[in-house]
Amino acid sequence: MEDLDNFDVHPLSLSEILKKNSDYLNEENDSIKFKGKISNIFSLSMGLKRQSKNKLKKTVTPPLLQWKLAAEKALHMDDPWAIFHLDELETETAKRYRYNALNQDWLEDVIKVKIAKEPFGHGAMRQCYRLKKLPTFGHHSWENAANFVAKCYMENVNRDIYFEDVKLQMDAKLWGEEYNRHNPPKKVDIFQMCVIEFVDRPGKPLYHLERYIDGKYIKYNSNSGYISCENLRLTPQAFSHFTFERSGHQLMVVDIQGVGDLYTDPQIHTASGRNYGDGNLGVKGMALFFHSHLCNKICESLGLTPFDLAPTELSEHNRIAQLQKSCTTVVRGKEELCLSPSEYERSHLIEMFRTRTYSSNSITPPSSESKNFNRNLSNDSGNPNSPFDMESLENGKFPIVLNEDDSGIGSHRKESSCHENGSTSDYIDVDFKELVMRKSRPSCVHHEMQLRRDLSTNGKRCFEYSVLGQIHLELSKYHALGRFIPEDEELYDHEAALYHLEHAANCGNIEALVTMAHIYLQLPHNLLTEISVPNNKEDFEKGMNWMKEAACAGDRSAMIYLARAFDIGTFNGMEWKLSWKEAINWYEKAVTMEEDDEGGHYDDCIHDPRYLLIARQAEMYRVGGHGLERDLQKSGELYSFAAECATEAMKGKLANKYYMLAEEVWSEMEE
Fold it and tell me: For residue 625, what is the DSSP state?
């Protein structure tokens, strides 16, 4: 009994001892048992104590109860703006305009607000005011009024800009929902924003209206390539990269900022550089993002492909790579791969994320008399199967050049039915197994080149416009302009500049192809003028291959260079294969291309006018040789055609000369 004095014993309650169906009591005999083992009263009390601790550990609050507790806590929180006494201000009537991005229409209603007289903060362009809005439903009391932030431009701007900003943010919000659909580690959302108009004030001023969120406001990246290293996080950068690939290189959501993963005031770069305000830097902005972006584990889990950067550029990312290791976000392995949009999705994405132009019809501000109105948007989404061309880009269209399977793997789609008006049915049957095989439209040139090879038909290569190629070209130009020169250096990174120029050429960019050819052939060039290569046979052949690629892509000057190289057998001092048959082929393509141009008559203002090219062909057919059969009939016709072209170009003497040569050739035929 002396040993018992050292025990801290708590008496058991009667309910504990007599508890029915207890694991500790055996009703068949008088002995107290603990899980089949005879135990004394102290062991029983210890067991109950351990059981109580285990129950506490295993208790998990149901999600519904968690939400109820959170809501109750939120209702009893003190108003952070109570000290500003906004409820004592006068009540004002405002007209609210909300935008539905899916239906592309506006909803209008009237609200009651109280707004502070002085701003509490400002950004680069707008200043912020505290505002309370009377609830639309429920108890109409200012005690229940929610806190909002009203923003207005500090400079006088066109009223349409307020509505365009709302469209931009709501479109970005849809991309946030699309990102969340792929089950990333952390979901994102973008503030719901609307426009309010104080109808009783002089001039009826406009404000942007957003919910007030208490927390630390952080800017994660900008529209010009800035990344916050002090507040580096994985999700914002992965979200921007995701929008680029998921949209098929049509656009990119950047300028990510906000509280946690609740973002506000984003910016959208589009492939054409049109729409979404002055902050839309187009492919230039995309290039600046990728120059500073280093793919992280979220990018990898979503199946996003790394953007190609030169070795010297990758070495500059060591600091970011180290900072990414300290990020605590953990991928679960349940993320869905970013698949490229189907034909149906592409056509609707183009419709949903409109290619708007600042015309009088498309930016008509909402009428104060209408309850529900549309923006009279022009439906210029075009045929989703049509290729990129410069005309469509100038008109703000974003057709995507893809075959039936975006990755070229061969996803089979059944032929969809068409309505009487010719529009494609909304339903497109896609085999699920092959749908899973599809991959995103990549950010790396290797996959882009493979895709373009798959698009080539009958041996004819695909040279349609490539957004990815234009991005690499812009990066090369940024290097040449000294945008990325470190403070302790004077010369730009020649290796990186040439690296991006070559990648742009591999994507079929004509300007890059021509520049690469001129660099390797020792010809004058306007881009990367400081870069040169040795004048040897190997580099000469590389240059000729680039020149041929440029000619196949449709560059007229490259066609003429190739034609003359095959014509005379030398090029810039180097020996080349002499073949008049090949020369005639490229001469004809250069002439035909000029005729296809609008107007088609620029002989008086361009180099190598077509009458000279036609006359050279006529001379080659007159003589024959070097793989070309002599054809006097063809020669006479070409001389006559050259004379007509010279006459149109106001070259009378030259036209008479060609007519005389034509007569000579035909006289030779009679002999």
Answer: B
Among the ranges given (22-31, 60-69, 181-190), the one the predictor scored with the smallest mean pLDDT: 22-31
Mean pLDDT of 561-574: 85
Q: Rounded to 5 degrees, what are φ and ψ at 659?
A: -65, -40
d(CA 287, CA 201): 44
Prediction pTM value: 0.74
Burial class (CB in 10 A: 0-12, 13-18, 19+), 138: exposed
C-alpha dist (Å) from residue 414 to 326, 343, 407, 435: 48, 12, 17, 13
To the nearest 10°, the Cα dihedral for 598, 604, 609, 611? 100
Tokens of 415: 């032929």
Distance (Å, whole) CA 305 – CA 451: 14
Q: Please state, as a whole number, how many other Cβ atoms lie within 10 Å of the Cβ of residue 584.
A: 21
For residue 396, which amino acid is it? G
- Pairing between β-strand 262-263 and β-strand 189-190 as defined by DSSP bridges: parallel
DSSP bridge pairs for 113: 92, 133
What are 607-626's pLDDT values in tens digits?
789 899 999 999 999 999 99
Which residues pair with residue 109 across a beta bridge? 96
Say which amino acid occupies 160.
D
What pLDDT score was predicted for residue 671?
A: 65
Give the residue from 259, 229, 257, 256 showing the smallest Cα distance to 243.
Answer: 256
What does the alpha-carbon distance between residue 221 and residue 230 come to, in Å, rounded to a whole number?
A: 11
